């Protein structure tokens, strides 16, 4: 487990359960993530095996054996169930790395606030909203199952006597984590914008220091692109096409939102700093212009220097994006392509193993 930076605000902050899972687990990040997936997917396999409604392996109309469509849906939901806490913890680890760099870009009165981002804990004032989001998620998850029973005209005792029991168990925490993640994006984006607006100092001679905000935006966008890739797995099942497309749409909106919340405010600050510096240059040039036009060599030299400085300022980059960040973002766009090939490969491997065992 990585150490968490100390802040004077720790007593006024709380740890969400998504992070507590990883902090308390002795298995490390990957071991805990794998355990969460096995817990979700394994419980489906157990319920399917016990109820046989449907069986884990079914015989298709053409005589071949394979996984039923509902098993694929359970597999994707298990990935989402796992990715939610994993991406939250991964985000905390990234912030712990970025927070000291962010602290170097802000005024002294904002450094404690910058370091608090890397703590992983949240302001106590938001605890009520996180609990409300969890409650709404539980209600939405149960409501979804009630709607399925209504549409399929399945009595509760029959639904709970099938793999429907798994969906009843998995949907509430799945929706709860999703609702909390959505709120967390809005909260973190707002807090970051406030930090940038109130405390970031722009030094036009050291704009490279601000590239950390591009890295933050890229990290956040990566998390949402990974989620979009998982949601694209729904597209393998034609019956889940609209669910997949809607989910991917929300994931892309989330990626754009978190990226712009980190990058756009810094861009605005840089533009304002450049405009202010250009105003100073133009005022100084107007003072030297008349003397330069009368033949004063010192004024002409100063005017030439100011002209060069003006060009240099105008050419300073306005976005906190290093070449490395831009290159990685281009590669991240390809992430959603992975599940298409992966799902095809997974289906072929599963069918091969099932056929070999029959």
Radius of gyration: 27 Å
Helix content: over 70%
Mean pLDDT: 82
In what range is the share of β-strand residues? under 5%
Please summarize the sheet with the most strands: 2 strands, antiparallel
What strand order characterises the main sheet?
Answer: 1-4
Number of strands: 4
Order of helices and strands: EHHEEHHEHHHHHHHH
Quickly count the helices: 12
Fold and architecture overview:
The chain is built from twelve helices and four strands. A hairpin with a 5-residue loop joins strand 2 (58-59) and strand 3 (65-66). It is elongated. Residues 1-10 have low confidence and may be disordered. The two termini are 44 Å apart. With 358 residues, it is mainly α. The chain has helices at 17-24, 28-51, 69-103, 111-117, 127-151, 156-160, 164-199, 211-232, 241-293, 297-314, 323-332, 337-357; strands at 13-14, 58-59, 65-66, 122-123. The chain has a two-stranded antiparallel sheet with strand order 1-4. It has a two-stranded antiparallel sheet with strand order 2-3.
């Amino acid at each position: 487990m990585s150490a968490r930076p100390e802040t004077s605000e720790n007593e006024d902050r709380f740890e969400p359960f998504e992070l507590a899972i990883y902090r308390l687990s002795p298995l490390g990040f990957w071991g805990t993530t794998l355990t969460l997936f096995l817990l979700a997917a394994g419980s489906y396999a157990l319920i399917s095996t016990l109820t046989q409604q449907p069986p884990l392996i079914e015989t298709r109309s053409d005589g071949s054996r394979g996984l039923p469509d509902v098993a694929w849906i359970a597999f994707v939901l298990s990935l989402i169930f796992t990715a939610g806490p994993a991406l939250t913890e991964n985000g905390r680890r990234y912030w712990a790395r970025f927070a000291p760099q962010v602290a170097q870009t802000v005024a002294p009165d904002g450094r404690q606030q910058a370091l608090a981002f890397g703590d992983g804990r949240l302001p106590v004032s938001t605890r009520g909203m996180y609990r409300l989001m969890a409650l709404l998620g539980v209600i939405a998850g149960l409501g979804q199952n009630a709607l399925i029973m209504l549409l399929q005209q399945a009595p509760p005792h029959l639904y709970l006597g099938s793999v429907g029991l798994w969906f009843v168990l998995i949907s509430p925490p799945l929706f709860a984590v999703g609702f909390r993640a959505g709120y967390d994006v809005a909260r973190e984006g707002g807090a970051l914008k406030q930090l940038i607006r109130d405390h970031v100092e722009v030094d036009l001679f050291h704009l490279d220091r601000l590239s950390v905000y591009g890295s933050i935006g890229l990290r956040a966008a990566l998390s949402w692109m990974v989620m979009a890739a998982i949601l694209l797995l729904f597209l393998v099942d034609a019956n889940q096409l609209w669910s997949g497309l809607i989910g991917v749409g929300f994931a892309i909106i989330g990626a754009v939102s978190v990226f712009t919340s980190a990058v756009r405010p810094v861009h605005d600050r840089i533009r304002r700093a450049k405009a202010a510096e250009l105003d100073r240059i133009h005022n100084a040039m107007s003072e030297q212009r008349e003397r330069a036009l009368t033949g004063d060599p010192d004024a002409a030299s100063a005017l030439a220097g100011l002209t060069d400085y003006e060009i240099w300022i105008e050419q300073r980059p306005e976005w906190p994006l290093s070449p490395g960040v831009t290159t990685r973002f281009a590669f991240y766009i390809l992430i959603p392509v992975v599940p298409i090939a992966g799902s095809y490969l997974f289906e072929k491997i599963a069918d091969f193993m099932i056929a070999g065992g029959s």
